[in-house]
Amino acid sequence: MYAQCMPLKADPSKARSQDAPKEPVLPEAAFLSSTTYTNTFFGFALDLPIASYGHLIRLPLMPERQHALLAVGFQDGDRSGSLTIDAIEPREGLEGFSAKEQQQQLYNRLPSGMPNGTQGDTQSQPQISPQGTLIAPRPQFEPGEFQFPEERFHSSVKHAGGKYTATYWTRIKNFKVGVLIATDDKAFLQKSRQAMAKVDFYCTGDDGTLATKDGTVVTPPGERYDGPTVPTWHADAAIQKSPGLNIPPGEISDGVYRNPALGVQYELPKGWDLLPVHNGGDPPANPESLRAFQFLHACSRTLLRIEQPAVGDAAHGYRPMIIVRALDPACLALSLPTGPSDKKHAEEVAVSLEALSEFGKVAAYDLASAADRLFMVFHGTIGLPAEGGRLPQRMSQAMFATSQKKMLLLWCLMAPTSGDLAAMPIGGIRLDGSEPIELPAARGANK
Question: Residue 263 to residues 70, 287, 377, 431: CA-CA distances in angstroms?
Answer without folding.
Answer: 39, 37, 21, 6
